[in-house]
Every structure is written in C-alpha cells, then in structure tokens.
Amino acid sequence: MSILEELYNGNITPCEMFVKKGSEYQKLSTQLTEYIDDLLPLLTKEERELYEKIEETISERSCISEREHFIQGFRLGAGLIRELEHYKSSNFRS
Length: 94
Prior knowledge:
Structural class: mainly alpha
Distance between the termini: 34 Å
Number of domains: 2
Strand content: under 5%
Number of strands: 0
Order of helices and strands: HHH
Oligomer: single chain
Low-confidence stretches: none
Radius of gyration: 21 Å
Number of helices: 3
C-alpha cells in the first residue's frame, strides 16, 4: 500500500508522537510529571482547577503548533522536490 493510501486510510497519524525510551524528550517529560506530582498536593481546590485550565490551554496550543509545524515541514519538503525536479529537467536535457 502506498504512503498516500496509508495516510488516507488513517494508518499514518503524524500528530501521534512515539517517544524513544531514554531520549531527552522522555527524560524531560518524566521530570515534568514529577514536578507536577509534587505541586498538586500543595494547591487548594481553586488553584488546582486553575492549574488544570492552564494545562488544558497549553495542550491545545501545543496541538495547534505541532499541526502548523507539520504543514510547514511538508510544504518545505514539497518545495524542495519541485525545485530539484526543475533543476534536473533544466540541467540534464539530452
């Protein structure tokens, strides 16, 4: 099956990120979780509700940012292919 077919069928989901075990990202995520676990018991009910709203808003913003970066990267890649094809056709004529 082609990449386009896989993408169309929902088998490829660029927004899902698989974190490599032991990576810097994974280590920072673990550290962040530990900080949150330390912080939450110190908060009042109202402060926890505010924290949850902040966390939800940050998550939504991150999703939008990831989508925009994916689109930018895809456009850049397509532009590079287009430029290479133009270069190839103008410099390698028989």
